[in-house]
Amino acid sequence: MKKTEKTLTPKLVKKLWIAFVLLVLLMGASFIFITGYFANKYSQETTQRVNADVAHHVIAEKFTNASPFLEDGSVNKPLFGDLMHDMMAVNQSIEVYLLDEAGNILYSVVLDPSDKHAMHKVSLAPIATFIDNKGEKFVLGDDPRNPGEQKIFSAAPYAIDNREGYIYIILAGEKFKEISNNLLGQYFAKLGIGATVLTTIFSALIGLLAIWFLTKNLRLMTRTVRKFQEGDLKARIEKPETSDIEVFAKSFNEMADTIVGNMDKMKSVDLLRRELIANVSHDLRTPLSVLKGYIETLQIKRDTLSEAEKEEYLQITHDNVDKLSNLINQLFEYSKLEAEQVVPVKEPFSITELSHDLIAKFKVIAEQKQITLELDNPEENSMVFADVSLVERALQNLIENAIKYTEASGKVTLSLTKKGESVEINITDTGTGIPVNEQPFIFDRYKQVAKNTTKHQGHGLGLAIVKKIMDLHDTTITVLSKPRQGSSFIFKLPAYQVS
């Protein structure tokens, strides 16, 4: 049993572990990335909010006593040198740019005019948005020293000496970027190590519990399957509707029931097969023994027998050959029906015309036994929807059986009666009848029914074939009989309405 537990779904558990680990790693990486992204954004937005009025203060404090432009219209570079010196003493990451009204960069201490990679004009749209919202909205603007990048800024308009433009201050310049990248790397390293250690411990515990819980029902099903495999045919998964894998649990139970049912059916079929072989062997032995006896008599005494005796012996031999042939044909026919090799081809036909033909066919045999054979049928022509050849075979077996068990001066009647959407067919005889205790088994293969005293009469396969034909037509056949008062075999076929 321990070996069974060890080998219980190892591949599935391994796959669950791999999937779980990958999921944890993905979630950890996503957590670190998202946390870093929003932390950086939060830091930038905070910095911009705090320094939103820096540009206004520059204009108010520096440009009140001195103009940013000289008398010749050029930029007052010494003024901007002092400005940058004062501001960098407080915050080294700040970069100040003097823009004209079109956004062209007129001057900046940190920008080299000969730098071909730098921007010499910035977009005014972010600046306009910043000024309109008075710095209350998070806005990113162009970074002249790094084209294509966006950074937080402060901006304010100016109008001095009939010239208009903007003071544009990058709040997170190159120095800020360098320090930020170093700190961010350290932050991610610390966060990554801490998060990895904590999530590994946490996920290991949760993973063990989760996998144990998720595979609980699977382990139960595996144990049940192994019990069934080892021969416990009663092993079933209890309460499959409460299982996490309800579909598989129910499917296994249904499969197990089907297997057991098929095994029982095979055992039953095997038992019946042996009984059939025994009964067929018995019935074949009788005509074969008669044939052998009379043929040997003809061979030994052919010179001493009269012509009349020879004719009698040959007739007896001929009759037994017919019996033997009929029995073999019945066995072959029943085998096909039992193997479900016969598929009914249903079509509308006149059961009245078929009945007339069968009455005419068996009339001579009935007269030889001094039995009255007649058809009791209304004037109307009854149409049914069925397989005409199979129905003919069933009626033929029933009529033969009725004539066989009816004494001289008796009567056999085939009646047709329209009842609703069906036509009822009834074959009645005035024969010996069937004992009540034997009637439930009359359609079994080779059921022996007591006749008179200790003598038994075999019905062979005739009635068993009839029962199979009725099954193919989804109908039933009923027997009504009393000893010494005759029998009635009744079945119905769907009527066909002629439009």
Draw up the topology in text.
Layout: H1 2-6, H2 10-50, H3 54-62, H4 77-90, E1 95-100, E2 105-107, H5 125-132, E3 140-142, E4 150-160, E5 163-170, H6 174-214, H7 216-229, H8 246-301, H9 307-338, E6 347-350, H10 351-368, E7 372-376, E8 383-386, H11 388-404, E9 411-419, E10 422-429, E11 448-450, E12 456-458, H12 462-472, E13 477-482, E14 486-494
Parallel strand pairs: 7-9
Antiparallel strand pairs: 1-2, 1-5, 3-4, 4-5, 6-8, 9-10, 10-14, 11-12, 13-14
Helix pairs in contact: 2-6, 8-9, 9-12, 10-11, 11-12
Class of the largest domain, according to the CATH hierarchy? Alpha Beta
Query: What shape does the CA trace take?
Result: rod-shaped
**pLDDT < 50 runs, ≥5 residues:** 1-8, 448-459
Proportion of residues in β-strands:
15-25%
Main β-sheet, spatial strand arrangement:
2-1-5-4-3
Q: What is the percent of helical residues?
A: 40-55%
Please tell me the total number of domains.
3
CATH superfamily of the largest domain: Histidine kinase-like ATPase, C-terminal domain
Gap from first CA to last CA: 71 Å
Order of helices and strands: HHHHEEHEEEHHHHEHEEHEEEEHEE
Please work out how many helical segments DSSP would assign: 12
Please state the structural category: alpha+beta
Number of strands: 14
Largest sheet: 5 strands, antiparallel
Kindly summarize this structure in a few lines.
The chain is built from twelve helices and 14 strands. It has helices at 2-6, 10-50, 54-62, 77-90, 125-132, 174-214, 216-229, 246-301, 307-338, 351-368, 388-404, 462-472; strands spanning 95-100, 105-107, 140-142, 150-160, 163-170, 347-350, 372-376, 383-386, 411-419, 422-429, 448-450, 456-458, 477-482, 486-494. Strand 9 and strand 10 (422-429) form a beta hairpin.
